[in-house]
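The records we work with from here on pair a chain with its fold. Taken together, the tokens spell out the fold as the letters spell out the chain. To see the layout at work, look at the sequence and tokens printed below.
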Amino acid sequence: MLYDRTQSLSRAELDLIHQASMKVLAQSGIRFADDETIDTFKSHGFKVEGHQVYFTEAQVEKALETAPDRFRFHARDPKKSIWIGRHDFALAPTYGPPFIVEADGTHKAGTLADYEKAVKLVQTSPVIDFHAFRYLAPSDVPATTSYLDMVRAALVLSDKPLMGSTDGKIGADNTMRILGLVFGDKYLDDHPVTMGLINPLSPLSYSSEMASAILGFARRRQPVIIHNMIMAGVSGPIQLPSLMALINAEVLGGIVLAQLVSPGTPVVYGSNSCPIFMKTAGAEIGSPQSLWIFSATTQLARYYSLPCRTGGSLTDSHLPDAQAMAEGALTLTWTLRNGANLVLHAFGQIGCFIGISFEKWIMDEEICGYMRDMPKQYPVTPETIDVSSIIDAGSGGSYITRKETAKYCRGAFYKHKLFNKYDHAGWKKEGALDMVTKSQRIIEERIGNYTMPDMDPALVKDIDALVEKIRANHP
């Protein structure tokens, strides 16, 4: 068990947040801009006024009864499938940044080649579990159909699980068409092979694109992450308990919709909400208050017996510098110790979501390697307490040449790939490199040694043909 209930809310406090959210859902309701979504609520007996939907506590509880607390996220390579929920956790890179951020803080537009570079880094990483889909917006392909290139790249260049497009009904449906070609339509309906990230339009609204994407994913019983990022004091209350009531109401509204469409569809409860920086009224993701929100989010997810997504290696810094690493390590550690099951932005997030930094990506991999190793158990048994060797070495003895040390040395401790562990002379002998330079060299080596995972060449051609057919007929 990784989480340790840091800053635990009592059952009574969680009940108060729940009841406040129920009042919000019953009296204010949530606006869903999509007509088909409104028809779905009406057909299930929900009170609807125009595009405003009102929820009773009984309706919410009935929907929650069918939502699983854990599910298997299937990869093209079955050995790379993962579990989401309960005590499991899975890590993925950042999602949605408009820019690539260079080591000196310069912003540049990304290309499809940059996107494919990110996919290859995922494939070659020992600590990244799945693809976060929208690593950047490729500027050299049409914006309206770029999601097709992203889905294609993640499928062909990697065999790890992947997230799909939630660009409205069209993006969701076309994601399912491509995945159906690869996995088979019957398999798709019975196995989660993709996930969609759904963001409410805070406060208390869902855009037509997001609402229709829930319908598209849920109809194929593919998981959705219902996740908001409310800024306390701008798009939500400044008092954090009030903020949690709003967060909870919005997330529950989306979860209920997914269960109405197809009971049993896996859903992930999530929030990366944060306070504002009072001098600019902009988001301040690297703050102690963000950590409290992440902790409360994981506790509410457990309250409803749902998998949770929150946190990441989050920073407001615009450089892969000490601030970026300090904030990132704190938020990532706090996130996992509080029990999050699914973590986007675990690698490469910079500038409060404005960009992706490949250098920070590599630094984050080192931190996530630590996090993977931290829960490792060391059984205390008569066999693992080697009293005879301690007695034999005696006072002032050395263990470096003992046969036990030689036997266990290769796998005893965590193997660092980035952080320096040499003394000063050894560090100079290795080139006296800083973290950014070492990260850049690791990237070059990983991309240079990348090999595409096995896929039938005929299937690759079929995927490309389908992508071009969809593109040619795209609205």
